[in-house]
Specification:
- The protein is an alpha+beta fold.
- It has three domains: 57 residues; 133 residues, Immunoglobulin-like; 133 residues, no CATH class.
- It has nine helices and twelve strands.
- Strands 1, 2, 4, 5 and 6 form a five-stranded antiparallel sheet that branches.
- The chain starts with a helix and ends in a 6-residue tail after the last strand.
Length: 352
């Protein structure tokens, strides 16, 4: 049992004792002896029942945290973190304790709510996936490439009664709010038998995101009045004619703005609609995994770097913006293509 739960149990015991002392003081007033004993018994019984119910809620936010056998289970160490940057992949390396008698293989780890329903990024604004790691990897929080090497969970064997390691990669969306009693569904195998454990992890229920001031963000981008007017009109009408007066640099800057605002549908509308150049549908675009996407800060940095670039036209209808990125010595290119009306649009995967 972790320190958080031990503290909750101690608090409950103290509260129960305080209530009992209060009942004794009240019953200490002059009264019939039999009646006093009867009331004392009723009060003490009521306090005990409430305490048991509260203990059950703290210990079992799910119906059952153990595996279906009731004898074997996993447990994780807890963490406390500062608010996270939204849309950025973070990694938690945790100690994983397995109390079974034989080694186990974890096939999947999924997020579920208190009713054991799957948690979905589109609705709940959090996504998580698990990986395996060597026991030598230090526990804690990692971002980006700092995590180093890791592998699929199913490629690892979890040993009993030792400090195994598990990695959780997670992304929080802009609208994420903590979900009460969110937990993990762990599907695993021992001795050829498949089983499932639901585990309530305190760490998950205390994740937060940093608030983003989008009004200030747009001010910092220093967009021109022409760009802002075209962007607003295009967002309303979805008619590419609203962008007719813009040059390739304007189009690229507004496309990156859709990334920063998280408007995936508008972002898709900036892509080329020329036959033979469309790489995926809007439905596929909206369903893309949140893992691997760039954070707001990363796209903002790209915006500033691209804005210092130069457009190079390579044909009547094609060209690219050449610019320098701080992270690379090789010039980068952002590709665009004109439609039949001569309006510049963003190529799919513009920075291949």
């Amino acid at each position: 049992m972790n320190n958080y739960r031990m503290k909750k149990l101690q608090n409950l015991e103290e509260e129960e004792q305080q209530v009992k002392n209060g009942v004794r003081q009240q019953l200490g007033k002059p009264a019939d002896t039999k009646k006093t004993r009867f009331l004392s018994y009723i009060a003490a019984t009521g306090v005990s029942i409430i305490a048991v119910l509260l203990l059950f809620l703290f210990i079992h936010p799910f119906e059952n945290e153990r595996s279906s056998t009731g004898k074997e289970d996993f447990s994780l160490n807890e963490f406390g973190f500062n608010p996270f940057e939204s849309r950025k992949a973070h990694f938690i390396v945790a100690k994983l304790f397995w109390n079974g008698g034989e080694e186990a293989i974890i096939h999947s780890v999924e997020l579920v709510d208190g009713a054991r329903n799957p948690v979905q990024y589109e609705k709940d604004h959090i996504a998580l996936q698990g990986y395996g790691a060597d026991s030598s990897k230090k526990t804690g929080l990692y971002t980006g490439k700092d995590i180093g090497e890791y592998r699929e969970l199913s490629e690892m064997t979890i040993q009993p009664n030792v400090d195994n390691r598990i990695i959780f990669e997670f992304v929080l969306g802009d609208d994420f709010e903590p979900i009460k009693n969110m937990g993990l569904k762990i599907t695993y195998e021992t001795a050829g038998e498949m089983d499932v454990q639901y585990y309530s992890w305190y760490t998950l229920n205390h994740l937060e995101i940093e608030a983003v001031d989008f009004d200030q963000l747009i001010k910092d981008l220093n967009l021109s009045s022409e760009e802002l007017a075209a962007y607003s009109a295009f967002r309303q009408s979805k008619n590419s004619s609203e962008l007719a007066s813009l040059n390739p640099m304007n189009i690229a800057r507004l496309y990156l703005l859709t990334w920063m605002e998280g408007d995936k549908e508008l972002q898709y509308d900036f892509y080329t609609d020329q036959e033979g150049y469309v790489a995926w549908s809007l439905e596929e675009h909206l369903a893309f995994s949140p893992f691997g996407q760039a954070s707001i800060a990363e796209v903002q940095k790209l915006f500033y770097e691209l804005s210092q670039g130069e457009f190079i036209q390579t044909s009547e209808t094609e060209g690219y913006i050449s610019f320098t990125q701080e992270s690379s010595e090789v010039p980068a290119g952002f590709q665009l293509k004109q439609n039949d009306d001569g309006i510049w649009q963003v190529s799919f995967m513009p920075m291949q």
